[in-house]
Amino acid sequence: ELDLARSKLGKMEQNFNYFKKQAKEGKFRDMHELGVLYRDGEGCEKNVEKAIIWFKKAAAQGFAKSADELE
Question: Which residues are CB-contacts of 2 (< 8 A; sequence separation ≥ 6)?
């Protein structure tokens, strides 16, 4: 069980790092996903303020799902 939990945590951190890299390159869908990960604390420490920043960046590029998150 412990190995499975470690494996899952490692995968979550990999996903976080992937989305963070892509978001910094300006990919709005990945900006949104990074916001979700920050909001939920998956693969990173939960940080609503950072989530909002990334949702705003994606929404500014016209990504409606991010605009919905900000309402």
Answer: none
Q: What angle do CA 16, 18, 19 make, to 5 degrees?
A: 65
One DSSP character per residue, 20-70 reads: HHHHHTT-HHHHHHHHHHHHHTSSS---HHHHHHHHHHHHHTT-HHHHHHT
CA 38 to chain centre: 5
Q: What is the DSSP letter of 1?
A: -
pTM attached to this predicted model: 0.90
What is the Cα–Cα distance from 44 to 15, expressed in whole angstroms? 10
Q: State residue 39's pLDDT score.
A: 97
